[in-house]
Design a protein that fits this description.
Family: Belongs to the EutP/PduV family.
Shape: globular
Number of domains: 1
CATH architecture: 3-Layer(aba) Sandwich
Strand order of the largest sheet: 2-3-1-4-5-6
CATH class: Alpha Beta
CATH superfamily: P-loop containing nucleotide triphosphate hydrolases
Number of helices: 5
Largest sheet: 6 strands, mixed
Order of helices and strands: EHEEHHEEHEH
CATH topology: Rossmann fold
GO molecular function, one term: ATP binding
Strand content: 15-25%
InterPro entries: EutP_PduV, P-loop_NTPase
Number of strands: 6
GO biological process, one term: biogenic amine metabolic process
Pfam families: PduV-EutP
Length: 142
């Protein structure tokens, strides 16, 4: 798998996705700082929620081959500004998480990620496993 950086709001499922992609157990604590786990860079949600941390995301992304923008389907807010992904100058992939709980909000989450600059979008549920294999396969050949 290529090296990726996960960017999303607090509670959007970044750490859970990291652990599922690496076939690790699901017990974990809240991400307090940037964490490197094999080929995945997991960022705290506060780095997206507070614009003064955008520079930290930009610098950290230099270590990555691709950007994963993570959006919780149940979160009504879109914290990704239009064109957000273009500042990284790397492929940006959108991931809508928790699809097993908010099917009626999927289109809104997809629009948010498309407006942010995601080139391709995956819909996943870490709980049921839906979409994880497709995302894993894509990341293998990115």
């Amino acid at each position: 798998m290529k090296k990726i950086i996960l960017i999303g709001r607090s509670g959007s499922g970044k750490t859970t996705l990291t652990r599922k992609l690496l076939n690790m157990s699901s017990d974990y604590k809240k991400t307090q700082s940037i964490e490197y786990c094999n080929n995945i860079i997991d960022t705290p949600g506060e780095y997206l929620e507070n614009k003064r941390y955008y520079k930290a995301l930009l610098v950290t992304s230099l270590d990555a081959d691709a950007i994963l923008l993570i959006k919780d389907v149940n979160d009504a807010e879109c914290y990704f500004p239009p064109g957000f992904a273009y500042m990284f100058n790397k492929p940006a992939i959108g991931v809508v998480t928790k699809t097993d709980t908010g099917i009626e909000n999927i289109e809104s989450a997809i629009r948010c990620l498309q407006n942010a600059g995601a080139e391709k979008i995956y819909k996943i549920s870490s709980y049921t496993g839906e979409g994880l294999d497709d995302l894993r396969n894509f990341l293998e050949y990115l």
